[in-house]
């Protein structure tokens, strides 16, 4: 079967997941005792960043493989084309955060408080970049550019299916657009990662952070791709996707889990060795007050995938591959939780502080805080809602074109792929 149809019962499951996510967000907003609704807004930001990043990385990988003359992925490249289109709802989701910045509906970012910025030398020095204008227009323009490239690559790919010729004119166009996108993606994604995630801890910075966050997105994208393909194969689709293709996806998931760990260690070790208070506070806070998150991050995202996927044959067994993919997907969602939540909580404490005693408590807060110290059921439910929305949107796009691009010049190489 080369034409995918999203069955009614699967639509119902995905819509049910979305309803669950909306319900969890609603309960978080109504019942979490915080006048700034920081748990609600941080859950919203966390999942918006995570799933938008998966869409971006899918587009980036598609462009990178095309530019590198890779052909092995061609048989299932429609999956990544469909994932990339989640950039559209991703932009809409970010517009809500942007409206919250302009309307002072939330306090996710300390730099949005102009009074604090005026008296803070560090934030004042960063104010040329960390401001609502840069956040707003940077997000809209850059994500708009990404959406333009996603639509261009997809439209040419579908056109190639319909009117492909032996001179490969359509594929040359795809390669030119892909090559143009790569440098744009490299520079602009770093700028948005700094804005969306790193600036949650406004006093802190790391030159490795954009690489680190992108590697986390990449592993999550590979994990979701594997699970999607195995699900579709179980429904009778993609029978031309073999163990060889899944083996390569498993290798990417394994390799970038190790690469993520390398970036994690490099960032941690260099900041620890430099012993600069402005930088070490990021890890000091997470080590002292978020030990379960901190060490759980390494267990989920390095130890487990390393031990499970190190053997060559485990990347060819569907059960083991799905298990590792679930762990990696959840693990990198956990990773973004750790990147975002402590900074938001600290900013919230400062915003709510009144008097010297409260201000001192804001500078060093300990103990358990629901939805921040560790993900709770509301956080997991919200993630499932976003996941349901992501898959519903992507699978709906998958219905609109043949699953296998029959006129792609690399299709025969992909169909006979062997490693």
From TrEMBL:
Ranges that cross the membrane: 12-32, 44-70, 82-105, 133-150, 177-197, 209-232, 252-272, 292-309, 321-340, 374-395
Keyword Membrane: yes
Keyword Transferase: no
Keyword list, A-Z: Membrane, Transmembrane, Transmembrane helix
Xref: PANTHER family: PTHR43044, QUINOL:CYTOCHROME C OXIDOREDUCTASE QUINONE-BINDING SUBUNIT 2
Name this polypeptide is given: Quinol:cytochrome C oxidoreductase
Organism of this sequence: Flavilitoribacter nigricans (strain ATCC 23147 / DSM 23189 / NBRC 102662 / NCIMB 1420 / SS-2)
């Amino acid at each position: 079967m080369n034409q995918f149809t999203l069955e009614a019962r699967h639509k119902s499951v995905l819509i049910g997941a979305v309803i669950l996510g909306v319900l969890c967000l609603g309960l978080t907003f109504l019942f979490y005792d915080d006048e700034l609704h920081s748990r609600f807004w941080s859950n919203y930001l966390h999942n918006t960043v995570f799933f938008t990043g998966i869409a971006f990385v899918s587009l980036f990988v598609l462009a990178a493989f095309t530019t590198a003359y890779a052909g092995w992925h061609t048989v299932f490249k429609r999956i990544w084309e469909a994932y990339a289109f989640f950039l559209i709802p991703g932009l809409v989701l970010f517009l809500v955060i942007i409206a919250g910045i302009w309307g002072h509906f939330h306090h996710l970012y300390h730099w949005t408080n102009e009074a604090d910025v005026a008296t803070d030398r560090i934030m004042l020095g960063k104010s040329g970049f960390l401001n609502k204008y840069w956040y707003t227009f940077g997000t809209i323009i850059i994500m708009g550019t990404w959406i333009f490239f996603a639509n261009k690559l997809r439209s040419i790919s579908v056109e190639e299916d319909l009117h492909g010729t032996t001179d490969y004119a359509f594929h040359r166009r795809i390669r030119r657009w892909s090559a143009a996108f790569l440098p744009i993606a490299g520079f602009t994604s770093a700028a948005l990662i700094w804005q969306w995630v790193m600036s949650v801890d406004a006093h802190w910075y790391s030159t490795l952070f954009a690489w680190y966050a992108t590697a986390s997105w990449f592993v999550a994208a590979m994990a979701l791709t594997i699970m999607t393909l195995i699900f579709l194969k179980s429904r009778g689709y993609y029978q031309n996707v073999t163990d060889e293709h899944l083996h390569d996806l498993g290798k990417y998931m394994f390799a970038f889990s190790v690469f993520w760990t390398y970036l994690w260690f490099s960032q941690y070790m260099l900041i620890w060795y430099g012993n600069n208070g402005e930088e070490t506070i990021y890890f000091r806070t997470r080590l002292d007050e978020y030990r379960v998150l901190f060490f759980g991050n390494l267990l989920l995202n390095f130890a487990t995938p390393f031990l499970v996927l190190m053997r060559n044959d485990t990347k060819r067994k569907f059960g083991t591959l799905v298990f590792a993919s679930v762990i990696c997907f959840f693990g990198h969602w956990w990773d973004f939780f750790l990147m975002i939540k402590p900074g938001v909580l600290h900013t919230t404490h400062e915003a709510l502080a009144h008097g010297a005693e409260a201000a001192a408590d804001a500078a060093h807060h300990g103990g358990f805080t629901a939805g921040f110290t560790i993900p709770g059921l509301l956080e997991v439910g919200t993630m499932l809602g976003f996941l349901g929305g992501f898959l519903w949107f992507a699978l709906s796009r998958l219905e609109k074109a043949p699953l296998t691009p029959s006129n792609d010049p690399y299709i025969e190489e992909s169909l006979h792929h062997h490693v």
